[in-house]
Amino acid sequence: MHREIHHWYSPNLNKHMEIAMYGHYGFGLLLLPTAGADYLEYERFHLIEAIQPYIESGKVKVFSINSINSEAWLNDHMNPVHKGIRHQQFNAYVEQEVVPFIKGKTSEDTPIITAGASLGALHSANLFFRRPDLFRGVIAMSGVYDLTAYSKGHYDDNVYYNSPCHYLPNLTDEHALHLLRTSGHIHLLSGSGDYEDPQASRNLSHILSQKAIPHELDIWGKDIKHDWPTWRKMLPLYLSNKF
Length: 243
Fold this sequence. Notes:
Elements: E1 3-10, E2 15-22, E3 27-32, H1 41-44, H2 47-50, H3 52-56, E4 60-65, H4 80-105, E5 112-117, H5 119-130, E6 137-141, H6 148-151, H7 157-160, H8 164-167, H9 174-181, E7 186-190, H10 198-210, E8 216-219, H11 228-241
Parallel strand pairs: 3-4, 3-5, 5-6, 6-7, 7-8
Antiparallel strand pairs: 1-2, 2-4
C-alpha cells in the first residue's frame, strides 16, 4: 500500500502539523483522530489495514491528520474561552491548509468525505456541516454531537458554532441547506454496547430530519462497544456498500 508522510508549519495553528496519506486514487477520505491522538492513530489501531482493500483498489485515498484536542477541549488547565479560540484555529487549519493539500494530491473536483470515531466523529461531522461547500459528506462513528459534553459548562459563540446539535436547528442559509440535502453521504453510526451513546446519534438524526436533510442512522447492537474493533467493522462496511 502506498504511504506518504507530509508535514508543514501551520500559520493558523502556529506549529508543525503532520498528515499521513495512503493510496493513489479515489475520493478523498479525511480522518479525524479520537480524543488526544495523532495522525498515525488509525494506522496503529489497524483501521488503515482494515480498509486497505479499498485503498489499493483506488476507491479511496486516505488523509489522516493530527488533532489539537489536548490544546483545546481536553485540556483541563486551559481557560474555556481560549479552548474555543484554539478550536476555531483548527477549523481554519483544515479548511485553509488541509483541503488545498488534498486537492493538490487528488484533483480540484475530487470529493472529500470526513470521517472519525468518538471525538473524531464530532469533529468530522462539524467540519462537514459547517462547510458543505468544501466537503461532500461524513461517516461519523460513535460520536456525541453536542459540544457542551466537552466544554464543562462553558458556552459561548465558539461552542455554539462548533456544536452541530446547537447550530443546525437554526440553519436557514438555503445554499448550505441545499448542499446538505443533496450530499447523499451523511452516515451516523453507533453501537449500543459499553461506553456507546446511541441516543446522541438519534438526537442528531432527529435534527437532520427536522431540516429535511437526508441521512442514514445506523444503530448497532448491545454487543458493539465503544472501541476499535467496532470501528474496524464499521468503516470497511460503509466504504464497501455506500461508495
